[in-house]
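call fold(seq) -> C-alpha cells
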Amino acid sequence: MSLPYTVTFANFLFAGGRLRLTQHNELFFRTEPLRRKSDRLCYPALLNVSRIPKGKRHIAWICTQYLNCSSRMSWPEQLHALLEHLWNGAFNLSSERHEGESWYTACRSVPNLHPIEQWERESQRDDAWALNVPWLSAPISVGELIEEFLSAGETCGPLWLFSRRDTTVPIVSRFVTFSQEQGRSRRKAV
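ret:
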C-alpha cells in the first residue's frame, strides 16, 4: 500500500541511568522528506494511531498497549520494538473503542482513502500515489512539536532539566546540556 513519508516522534525519559521509551509517542505524515525544523506535519490516516485532543491541536498517539518492550532493552532496541509494533502489529479499531477515534477514521474527508480497498486500488495504479494526497494538516511544525515535548519534560532527561522555565533555551543547547550532564555523571561514577 502506498504511504507518504512517515515521521515518528519516539519519546524517551532518562531514568535509572538509562533511556526508557515513554508512552508519549506520535506519528505524522509528510509528502516530502524533512529538511528543517520549520517543516509542517500532516496527520496520519492510520488505524491504531489515536486522535486525542490536547490544547490547540490533536495528538497522533501511537497505541502501545501490547508493545513488547523491556526496560532492559537499549534505546535503539526500544525504538525498533516501537516501529515493529506500529508497522507489523494488527491494525484494528482499538482507537475507536478506547480513545474515541483513530486518524484513519478522522480522515474521512481525504479523497480515495475510504474504504481501505480504494486506497489499495489507488496504490496499485501508482505506488507513489500517497505523496500527492491532500493529507490533513497538523497545526504544528517539527520544531514546535519537539519544543512541546521538551517543555513538558517528557523527553531525554530528568524532568528538572527540561522544565517549563527553560522554554527559551534553543533545542540544540538543551541536547548539548543533556549530553554534558550525562558525561559528568559517568565520570563521577568511574
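The chain is about 35% helix and 20% strand.
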